[in-house]
Structure prediction request, 228 residues.
Amino acid sequence: EIVMTQSPATLSVSPGERVTLSCRASQSVSSNLAWYQQNPGQAPRLLIYGASTRASGTPARFSGSGSGTEFTLTISSLQSEDFAVYYCQQYSNWPLTFGGGTTVEIK
Amino acid sequence: EVQLVESGGGLVQPGGSLRLSCSASGFTFSRYWMHWVRQAPGKGLVWVSRIDRDGTTTRYADSVKGRFTISRDNAEKTLYLQMNSLRAEDTAVYFCARESDIPSNYYMGVWGKGTTVTVSS
Prediction:
């Protein structure tokens, strides 16, 4: 099973700041990596797939990069609606696995 | 509007059974592979199961293999998860999700709001 490790667990940031979230895979997943956003009490929402392709409706301030085992999700200027939990997911191997999540909270 | 609506959750005793349903609308259900993903209280997302478009090929997480069965009724546009021999650790919100329409891209582009399963005596 591929283990996905996200860091940090929590980020305290101010609106307007640039944020970088990390996701590391225990073995190469090529570019088979997705990012999701989840607000409290809500379903996850797909943000990025293929490591760097924005899903339909994802604002341009979100960008993904990386391949192999190291990935990042960057939010260029944090908006109020971006305070949420972010998960990465690999879809290179079965079983599909998610990272433990990064909570982006208001500083 | 593309929509997935889960139902069937509830409180069940350890060792009991429950069947979850996920009703799809706004898209051609039979064209998509479908998944169940769960989230224990205060925890992260965990993939549970996947089914192909015609219901002939399924996959399961080791933690539910032999206890859970995924199925679908394309005529009714409904996905199911039969859960047997339930354990306390199965307590979670269960989401159904639609897979990407790109072959072999097993990420989930559409999610339901989830249904809550509580296993407790």
